[in-house]
Amino acid sequence: MEQLIQEAKELLEENKVDVVIGYRSSPLPPFTQPAFIRRPEDCEQLVFNCGSVYNLTRYLIGLGEKAAVVVKGCEQRGLVVLEQENMLPRDSYLVIGVGCSGQVDEKKLMEGGFDRLPEQLSDELIADKCLYCDQHNTPDADIFIGDEVKSIEPQKERYAGLDEFFAQDYEKLYHQWTEVFSRCIRCYACRNICPLCYCEQCISYVNMPQWLPRSVADNNNYLFHMRRVLCMAGRCIDCGECERACPVDIPLRTLYKRIAQKIEGFFYGYRAGYNREQLPPLQDFNKDDSADFIL
Amino acid sequence: MKMQKLSEDDIRAGLDKLSRETVVYAPIEQEGRLDFREMEKGGEVELGARKTIMSAKKLFLPQAEELFSFRAGKHSVEIIDPPKDEEPLVLFACRPCEMRALEIMDKVFNWDYADSQWNERRARATIIVFACLEPLTETCFCNSLGIDSSRSDGADAIIYTTAEGFFARAHSEKGEKALKVFGGKDEEAPEFTTRDFPEKFNTDLQEEMMENFESPTWKEVAPACIGCGICTFVCPTCHCFDIQDEGGRRVRLWDYCTGADFTLMLAHQPRPTQYRRYRQKVMHKYSYYPTRFGEILCTGCGRCIDQCPQNIDFREVLKKCDQLAPAETGGGG
To answer: Cβ distance A71 to A44 under 8 Å?
Structure first.
């Protein structure tokens, strides 16, 4: 922590950045909150622990000032995609990298009635996405805090369970998802928290015509969520923020991982954000791309 | 004073009977989420000290509400009134913060015109409030808004939970009619007072905010806000709406001022940056509404704090707003 505070202080004192975006403690679960530090003396507030769940890179788009941001391994993939999409030049921000051995599942933390973060993150409390993490240490960091986390054996496979789930009867799945989406209150937290949802005019705002009707009636929610899956195709980095933000526990990652799995299958094993040199498939063309749907 | 003493069995049997006669909404848990749901759809009613995710507001101001529908004729447009829902409803076990919120919103819904749909629902509903003698969660701050949650004078009836059972009292004819269904017997009730509420903080901020509208401190108030609608939608007093036409129907839809498309016009985006939108949220609740209607548009229920994905604590926001005035003038703090 000392190193984090020191580095952040120097960045501000030397005017290398206008703001350091990191985590500070909070008395409420998950016991941290995003912090926007502008004064060197406020750097004392900075922490990094297993409750530092927020993907702070989402604050970089349109920030309008030079920032240093604490980035976890999974989140760095979003920065790669943003660079590939020409939305965020790599030199417009500084990455403060960390070694992360897992983050809490906020909902499980609250159900367990914890009044502080546990010393050790147990399997019962860890976020699902962390069970198959393959990027504990932030790649391409400008500053790396602390020691690198030694490799941790993943406890499950990224797409585990998806094939079985989606192999169910179509009608059954349709009714199941209709039931799930009926909970949706169209708060758009999933969209707003996502670092890759940066469209100034989201299609859900367009009202001439209103492509995605806003009322929660008539299964309009289904349409919104299916549309979002298309937005995430080949881009979602599985940081899990959408699912964390959802106030009604819609299993969004199931959808976005499914489309990611499909993209990986169609496009030579592509996974978003792992390789800056590998263009996203929807931005690229290869003569060997399958065309059996038209020929 | 004497009140109607009820056991848990009395309450459950009474609710069962009521739900056969009329629509009853009560806090019911589904997959770990507690919300007001129709009893008829199943599930056990929660009688314990737990807060719902969404407030009871949605029963009076639905997320989507048809105002009218229309059909184009050869040379005219036919306007068709929405289907009338005249079924009386019972709202069971909402909290004093939610009841107070309805009374606060009655003012705006009867301001420049009388909102018939709101008023009809208010008239049709029998509201039975559960008192909070203690805060439901550590995020409750209704006492800072001057609310005494040991009472709810605007409710049709109030029920107190004690170790020995429940004590109920009707405030209106509708309340009496509903409580009769529960049975029980009259018994001397103890004094009901609140305890263990957090220290009050200043919520009288309307002038300070207005005078310091351009203060750069607004940028520091909630920089983590992502502009979603969660706090607005779970809030018992937020009521801003958008009106759109969907498939031949004009519908009123929940809107959220934290969103970038709130009151977005073709000619102009009135609030281009997030801090201005957040300022709008705070000032509508703590400055504009009290100035116009004499009531703060907040009842300190704490749902916004509970549900904010970025852990923004609205109490901290208000405390920062209490320091908007620049130090030199000696104001604020």
So the answer is: no
